[in-house]
Amino acid sequence: MPYKNIEKERESKRKWKRNHRDQENQYTKNWRAKNQEHIKLYSQDYNLKHVSERRLNDQKWRDNNREKYRELNKIAARKYRLAHPDRRKISIRKWEKKNPDKVLAKFQRYLSKIGKELDLSFGAYQFALRKWSSFIRDEEDNKCQICDKEAVAVHHIIHKVLYPKLSLNINNGICLCEIHHNEVHGKCLGMINK
Ligand SMILES: [Zn+2]
Ligand SMILES: [Zn+2]
Q: Which of residues 53, 76, 98 is at a domain's end?
């Protein structure tokens, strides 16, 4: 049967290739070294003919299917975020390092917004917050109220964005160490990963 013969031939070719792999690789290398100019021209030609054409087609498709493209992009981005939960944090940190002025401006806007609710300017509110936290640090001996280690932060029990008017209440603060402060903010998993 002819079919069997073809199979046999293929198998023998494969066998030959397996046994002569080094020889073949050397042959290809030699050929490439001799024909560099030809390869360069060929790939340029290929790119001009096929790659740019494909790019144009892709662009056309995107222009014609904006909604669908956006939808697909969203799904891909979500998948990427789920697969690499730390990358986003890292990229945010990188951005913050590169743009300290923008970070400061953001912080100022954030505090100004809350201060407005209390009729305080940014500077006055920042000063009041500092007084508030130092008062609580003194009261609680600067010790984490969960584990008794040295505190690194005075945490707002009721978040200052939610209830700005409670943000300077001395009953609304608690001294916490780094681990427990991260924990109450739901960042405990991030700590373990570090
Ligand atoms: Zn603690
Ligand atoms: Zn906090």
A: 98
